[in-house]
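Q: what does this look like with S-adenosyl-L-homocysteine bound?
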Amino acid sequence: MVHQQLEMRGLREARVLTAMRVVPRHLFVEPAQQGLAYADEPLPIGEDQTISQPYMVARMLEAAAVGPHDRVLEVGTGSGYSAAVTSLLCQHVYSVERHESLARQATERLARLGYSNVSVQHADGTLGWVENALYDVVLVPAAPPTIPLALLDQLVIGGRLVIPVGQPSHQRLVRVTRRDRHEFEQQALEWVRFVPLLPGVTHAHAA
Ligand code: SAH
């Protein structure tokens, strides 16, 4: 998987490649998908969601230049796979998942497999995770039509946000670097295809 899907496509960052070799992806997919666990594609994990394609996990980590002392926010825990890989590269991963059942399963799985520097919360990740902000890196493995402002707000100066932005059919992977309090630099990377980042749960207000 690492050689054919990552190195052959130009990924070079040794720390990322090592982490991708170490995390047992077959333990993050459903039993029916075991045979495809190392295939070059996303796979269904229930709730209409997918475990990300291995290449995209590695590509986002390389683009974000995750360092050993970084505190990382992830929006969209899904199976917990990308959180597990990320946890090997940084100090702590704070991961937010909108689907209660996925958040619960990922929490149990990560604890069982010994990933102790990952915290998972069931919440709307378009708001970030305010209690633990600021973050050196924010990773969003799901695509909104526009970048949620709360995620920019929760970056340290020098911090990086890597996020696919666009329509459900196609998106541009974007890296935003916070240069100063009000100054952000945006770089467009390749075209990609992720599941949509769902809007926050709306509450009806009594008149
Ligand atoms: N990287 C994950 C898969 C991410 S799929 C893995 O390796 O398994 C995208 C995830 O984002 C889905 O689980 C989806 O439920 C979640 N999601 C979508 N909108 C969200 C939101 N507003 N807040 C938090 N999570 C969200």
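Residues 49-52, 75-76, 78-79, 81-82, 96-99, 102, 124-126, 141-142, 195, 197-198 surround S-adenosyl-L-homocysteine (CB under 6 Å). Confidence is low (pLDDT under 50) at residues 203-207.
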